[in-house]
Amino acid sequence: MSVHNGNSFRAAAFYDLDGTLVDVNLLHVTAYMLANVAQWKGRIANVAALAMRLPRLYRAERHDRRLLNVAMFGIFKGISRDRLFVLGEEYCDRVLMQHFYSQAVDLVEGNRAAGLEPILVSGSPDFVVAALARRIGVETWAANRLAYSRNLASGRLREPIIAGEEKARWCEEFAARKGLRLRDCWGYADSYYDLPFLTALGHPVAVNPDRRLMATARDRQWPIIRFARIRAAAPAWPLDGES
What we know:
The structure is a single chain. This protein has helices spanning 26-36, 40-63, 65-73, 81-94, 102-113, 126-136, 165-178, 195-199, 211-220; strands at 11-15, 116-125, 140-144, 146-149, 152-157, 186-189, 203-207, 224-225. With 243 residues, the protein is α/β, with parallel strands linked by helices. It has one domain (6-225): Rossmann fold. The longest helix has 24 residues, at 40-63.
């Protein structure tokens, strides 16, 4: 993959992940992790526990994306950090790369070629986002991080929790450190909950927007793009040295 020298980027393109670049979500990630973290008996118990929490998670998602993240990550309590990062690598190779929208590959690479540094800003866990970032040549990313005690997940999230206003604040702080002007930066997201994130950037774009984000994007005359969910094959990223 072609990667710009850090000094050649004139601005940044901030990308949400779930639903924007890939057609999976945090619930899918969690189910995969729990289904693969233990022996068969443990897997069944883990998935059953997730099913019991689904009503709570659904209510959290409808009212507060931050609450959803807190509730979802609590399921990982007691799992070793090493195991989670191994599963993150497996999930990335077996699932996530296969669910990348082919049009999203073109978008990220086109923006990169135009001098926009790609930044992932996701509520997904760091053990998944880190693996993905390496595979697609993204050096900078923000993701939610679990707190650990004696190498075991505590079930608590470390601050900042990447959701809502915090997601926007992270972008603002990153831009300030790098000397970038937010009005020159682009943002891509699919959910109304990402409105603070999108409005913090000079060029917001609604990607596969939900109903409320669609209405907002139309009202504010933001670009709206949709990626097809059906692909004949997994999209391929450019090889090293290709443009």
